[in-house]
Write a structure and sequence with these properties.
52% helix; alpha/beta
């Protein structure tokens, strides 16, 4: 990784900032140019010493880059790919960190042209659930899985470079197709977030909402935690992966219907069997 010294960071938030900080501390990156919408996010990073230069547009940010990291919201990434395509150095490694991969991979293939083989769709399974700004920290990716989604056009050297970068900052790379990633994330992340949002929305619709929330304890805190995520991010993710998400949501509806039926029938043996099966699966999950 000695040749990867300049990073273009497109999106100055927790995910991108933590990557930049970790890569600098690991000696992989010497210079970071940041671009963000709104621009004050990049200016804040500059004031904090997290980046060395603020670019006024995406193309200028990548002109001298060895590594480009698109750390913007999912809906913004296709536009960024189009804006940087003509300014990319031929040798640059390009990655994104979006929570969906098929739509971004397709957008990259259309936008990047000859640069596409050096694009490695990437998704680090890391972050924080609290909405609003959060300061980056270099250990965010320690012992975290990062999914890389190459296809048949991906340059082998670029893929190896991406794997080495993430390994060097403490992450565990895992290769997977974009379709498999999107189904897996629909089940393991997108659906739980949607259900947590729906649960909070249902409580807010109750006339005695304040009294109900006042009784919340550890169980409420654990279950509702991810409903505190940034709504603008999930506004983009959920529709983008709808074809994988909606069938799983329907499966949850079926389970809820079954639970409602056995509760109404006072069938406690059947109820216990359903709850035990779910409980044991969660206990055994690591």
């Amino acid at each position: 990784m000695a040749d990867s010294k300049t990073l273009a960071l497109l999106g100055c938030g927790l995910i991108g900032g933590s990557f930049a900080l970790a890569a600098r501390q690991a000696g992989l990156i010497d210079q970071v140019t940041g671009y963000s919408v709104p621009q004050q996010h990049a200016e804040h990073f500059y004031e904090q010493g997290l980046i060395h230069k603020v670019a006024t547009n995406a193309a200028d940010a990548v002109r001298d880059a060895d590594v480009v990291l698109l750390a913007a919201p999912v809906a913004a990434i296709p536009g960024l790919l189009t804006h940087i395509a003509t300014a990319l150095p031929a040798h640059a490694l390009i990655m994104d960190v979006g929570s969906t991969k098929r739509s971004i991979q397709s957008a990259a293939q259309q936008a990047l042209g000859d640069h596409y083989p050096r694009f490695v769709p990437t998704h680090p399974i890391a972050g924080k659930e609290k909405a609003g700004s959060s300061e980056p920290f270099a250990t965010l990716y320690q012992n975290r899985t990062v999914v890389l989604c190459p296809d048949e056009l991906t340059d082998a050297q670029a893929l190896q470079q991406a794997q080495q970068l993430w390994q060097a900052i403490g992450a565990h790379p895992r290769l997977m197709g974009a379709a498999a990633h999107d189904r897996g994330l629909a089940a393991a992340s997108h659906l739980p977030h949607l259900i947590a949002f729906a649960y909070m929305d249902a409580l807010l619709n109750q006339p005695d909402c304040d009294e109900l929330l006042a009784l919340g304890g550890p169980g409420f805190r654990d279950f509702s935690r991810i409903a505190g995520c940034e709504a603008s991010i999930w506004r983009d993710i959920l529709p983008d992966n709808r074809d994988q998400l909606i069938p799983l949501l329907n499966a949850v509806r079926q389970s809820l219907d079954q639970l409602e039926k056995v509760i109404n029938q006072d069938d406690t043996n059947h109820l216990e069997a359903i709850l035990s099966r779910a409980s044991q699966a969660r206990i055994q999950w690591k």
